[in-house]
Amino acid sequence: MQTKRMTFPGRWLPYALLAPQVVITLIFFIWPASQALYQSLLREDAFGLRTTFVGLENFVRLFGDPLYLNSMKVTLIFSLGTTLLSMSLALLLAVTVNRMIRSRSSYTTLLVWPYAIAPAIAGVLWWFIFNPSIGIVPYLLDMLGYRWNHRTSGGDAMLLVIIAAAWKQISYNVLFFLAGLQSIPQSLIEAAAIDGASPLKRFWTIVFPLLSPTTFFLLVVNVVYAMFDTFGVIHATTSGGPSQATNILVYKVYADGFVGLNLGSSAAQSVILMAIVIALTVVQFRFIERRVNY
């Protein structure tokens, strides 16, 4: 069997095609990352008039700071909650839509719309829904005997930001789950049905294992999303409060760097956050991928 090999008419054409992506990566990722790494080794005053090289002192102080350790715990809870909620609901919606025949495209379009909303707007929408004074959800919960107030309760605040962040990501997950479901051969499912397997058993023994590549990919994407792309949701809903209950790592980088003007500590936090995400991605590809069936 012969394999076709792509040939380019000019020697520099492949490099020219790669150049835009390489330039964008250098400008918007490599350069900022190198600057953050360099700045994490410095101590600067708020006006940038004096800079002192302190080595790893910023990192040592962070791991001895109770507020930073609390932010790590909050980030872990927030990331797990957002990932599990968004992926589980997206899988349920994708399975439901996939069983439809006539209205599948219409439902898919409606489910995609929330992904086009900016994170800050999504946060504001859920802030109004859960507002203790004018929100419909606190009114219904009050009728059931529960006094909702995310301004004073850390648990309520955490639940609010998890719901808002997960809702923003569900549409993205639905698209990939739906594509994965449609790629599964129907003959396998029909054969299991003929053998007498129930719908639930067919899903857990045939459909879900064949969805493992899609699930693994979305697991990585959702963890990165929860740790990096949820700043707007946090800022619009709770601003890290109450009492640091929703102050995740990416928001603490902003609060310490742009509000507190502690630039060295903020840069060190961004380096640690980047290292955590890289480590989680490596662990996922190294160990979790072994259970994936391609």
Automatic annotation (TrEMBL):
<feature type="transmembrane region" description="Helical">
    <location>
        <begin position="202"/>
        <end position="228"/>
    </location>
</feature>
<dbReference type="InterPro" id="IPR050809">
    <property type="entry name" value="UgpAE/MalFG_permease"/>
</dbReference>
<dbReference type="InterPro" id="IPR035906">
    <property type="entry name" value="MetI-like_sf"/>
</dbReference>
<feature type="transmembrane region" description="Helical">
    <location>
        <begin position="76"/>
        <end position="98"/>
    </location>
</feature>
<keyword id="KW-0813">Transport</keyword>
<protein>
    <recommendedName>
        <fullName>sn-glycerol-3-phosphate transport system permease protein UgpA</fullName>
    </recommendedName>
</protein>
<feature type="transmembrane region" description="Helical">
    <location>
        <begin position="110"/>
        <end position="130"/>
    </location>
</feature>
<feature type="transmembrane region" description="Helical">
    <location>
        <begin position="12"/>
        <end position="31"/>
    </location>
</feature>
<keyword id="KW-0997">Cell inner membrane</keyword>
<dbReference type="InterPro" id="IPR000515">
    <property type="entry name" value="MetI-like"/>
</dbReference>
<comment type="similarity">
    <text>Belongs to the binding-protein-dependent transport system permease family. UgpAE subfamily.</text>
</comment>
<feature type="domain" description="ABC transmembrane type-1">
    <location>
        <begin position="72"/>
        <end position="284"/>
    </location>
</feature>
<keyword id="KW-1003">Cell membrane</keyword>
<feature type="transmembrane region" description="Helical">
    <location>
        <begin position="267"/>
        <end position="288"/>
    </location>
</feature>
<keyword id="KW-0472">Membrane</keyword>
<keyword id="KW-0812">Transmembrane</keyword>
<feature type="transmembrane region" description="Helical">
    <location>
        <begin position="157"/>
        <end position="181"/>
    </location>
</feature>
<comment type="subunit">
    <text>The complex is composed of two ATP-binding proteins (UgpC), two transmembrane proteins (UgpA and UgpE) and a solute-binding protein (UgpB).</text>
</comment>
<dbReference type="Pfam" id="PF00528">
    <property type="entry name" value="BPD_transp_1"/>
</dbReference>
<keyword id="KW-1133">Transmembrane helix</keyword>
